[in-house]
Specification:
The protein has 464 residues and is of the alpha+beta class. It is built from 16 helices and 16 strands.
């Protein structure tokens, strides 16, 4: 039986999966809008968590108020042909997501290292899963991964509004535009984590981490908040313990880090403890945060429907929003995703690049708040007059408050050269590091990105 100690830098557990109060009667999911863990994790840990009784709506906002809800009936108003293709698209996406889920459940071998027998079994199971998917779906899945979201949606739909709404989910949390190669993969990834297009359990992100914290305690583990780890103590390439910000040293036989790989390896361990080539690869991990969050406290009469709403008029609009970020600028016409929880309106803002060319995030928070409100007010004209308080989370806040290097919510971009056996870096995809007894288990490793619990579940398989 192992003695487990969880160390949390902030006063509340959960990292970026938290529900916080930003003032009296002003509460919101800080970064991730709700989320859900994989069913096997909920079952194994005997977690009691909210389950959505029906799938929430995903709505593309239209200036005339005639909003598009992504379902067969609503799509019909925009295109009869697209409505007839909708169910086949959903069927394929569900199948593609289940194949990706099987890949995420497989511990990736450390290619190009020699395969162990254990690695071989994992890949054999994945191969079987692919065979069971059927030849046509398997080929379409493999084909979809390197495609752009634009190419993928164009194969199914003719309406620009339908295409753009789906493509927006592909670029969510990514420094990519819908015309970028590999956004077929990110669309499937986000579909898998959300269980479709819309977020589930909005307003309840904190319940997920509270349930996990309660599970730790019920199994005899200990959690300490306000305990920032500033260094991982290493002797002869072996992790021996951690040092806290107050100077306290804690010895440990095994250390699991859910911080991002760059922070864990380059800051907590330090480059001098690691092989030069490994350091170079770690430094080369693409972070590139491009997201801001704006939470608005209203009197509750905002008139914004439940579900996940997007401002995505066309694929070209989304691509132009991305263009600004490529040059280190804030999108003047941003892609927004909006969720509500009681009187709080939460706006996910893209693109807000961490690296600004001609400014500084210490002075730009007011600008993105105004841009977000102005953009959303085009669809809900009364919104501005209903706001009594607001809270802005910039990419710099994501780094400083939530410890996300470069404000990257996924601990490293989800891209074709940073997924499967290349995540976090080639040759180190099985949670291990060059430091014995130190393992990675955050979003930056294989299976991570978003709320799922997958990388934490998988590291336990490695330790068994």
């Amino acid at each position: 039986r192992k003695k487990v100690l969880v160390l949390e830098r902030r006063s509340i557990v959960g990292g970026s999966v938290v529900t916080e109060s930003f003032g009296e009667n002003f509460q919101a999911d800080s970064i991730h809008a709700g989320g859900s863990l994989r069913p096997d994790i909920i079952k194994d840990l005997k977690l009691s968590l909210p389950t959505a009784t029906e799938k929430p709506d995903f709505i593309s906002l239209q200036p005339d108020g005639n909003h598009l809800t992504l379902n067969e009936e609503s799509i019909k108003r925009f295109s009869e042909k697209d409505a007839s293709r909708w169910n086949e698209f959903v069927r394929f996406m569900d199948k593609a997501a289940s194949i990706l889920d099987a890949a995420y459940a497989t511990i990736m071998p450390r290619l190009p290292k020699n395969l162990s027998l254990r690695d071989g079994y994992g890949l054999l199971e994945l191969g079987l899963e692919l065979r069971l998917a059927g030849r046509k779906d398997m080929l379409n899945f493999i084909r979809a991964l390197p495609m752009s979201a634009q190419e993928l949606v164009e194969e199914y739909f003719e309406s620009e509004i339908v295409r753009a709404a789906i493509a927006s989910v592909a670029i969510h949390n990514s420094m990519l535009g819908p015309m970028s190669a590999g956004t077929g993969y990110t669309l499937i990834h986000n579909w898998l984590n959300r269980g479709g297009l819309a977020h589930s359990n909005v307003g309840k992100a904190g319940e997920i981490t509270n349930a996990l914290a309660n599970a730790v305690k019920s199994f005899g583990g200990e959690i300490r908040t306000e305990s920032e780890v500033t260094r991982i103590r290493v002797e002869n390439q072996i992790a021996k313990g951690v040092v806290l910000s107050n100077g306290e040293e804690i010895s440990a036989n095994v250390i699991l880090s859910s911080a991002d790989p760059k922070h864990t390896l380059l800051t907590l361990v330090g480059a001098r403890e690691l092989p030069p080539e490994f350091v170079w690869h770690t430094q080369s991990i693409k972070m590139r945060g491009s997201v801001a969050k704006i939470h608005l406290q209203t009197n509750g009469n905002h008139g914004i429907p439940d579900g996940t709403l997007c401002v995505a008029p066309s694929v070209k609009y989304l691509e132009k929003a991305y263009d600004a970020a490529k040059y280190g600028e804030i999108s003047e016409k941003p892609y927004l995703e909006v969720t509500t929880s009681e009187n709080t309106v939460s706006i996910h803002f893209q693109f807000a690049p961490y690296q600004l060319k001609n400014s500084d995030w210490k002075v730009e928070d007011e600008k993105i708040k105004n841009l977000a409100i102005e953009t959303l007010s085009e669809y809900f004209p009364n919104l501005n007059s209903l706001i009594s308080n607001s809270h802005v989370i910039t990419p710099l806040d994501l780094e400083q408050t939530y410890s996300l290097t470069e404000g990257d919510i996924n601990h490293g971009q989800l891209m074709l050269d940073q997924f499967l056996f290349m995540r976090p870096i080639p040759g180190w995809s099985n949670h291990k590091t060059p430091i014995d007894n130190l393992y990675l288990c955050g979003s930056g490793v294989h299976g991570g990105g978003g709320v799922s619990g997958v990388s934490g579940r998988n590291v336990v398989k490695v330790l068994k």
